[in-house]
């Protein structure tokens, strides 16, 4: 076909992943595959991941705004590049810090806005300047809440992301958070000053921040 194919491998549910040398080769491969396979298979190019940042220490009153209103406030108060709320800027997660009673969020955005925010290190939200750092995607198991593997590969017992007990987080009735990772680390190393009172998915979890 005269197409620069770099790899071919099987994926889940009968899918096949094909790697190409360039964007031009990708388009050529798509056209050739559609012509050869017709409508028998779905052919798609995965979207490129946009960068993400942690925004720390947002006041509760600002965090309680609707997502669109909060995003517009961030854009209006921090004119760092061409961006609009929606596909170019969106809230991925919100977390409440029980110690500070502030809210942390994970934002996804385009590369231009990301560069401006990271270079500044702070953004304005309401009457407060909030610290910003790059969000590093870490693989976390949805079964045991451990790191470095996925649920389908997990050989450990289930652990609730909220309380750390052996049940799914959807079945949890606990009103107190206990991070299973920090709890296990505390017991393993006999630590006295580690904070375990948060979800296992908390962005400022001591175990998460050490990765």
From TrEMBL:
This is CCHC-type domain-containing protein. It comes from Odynerus spinipes.
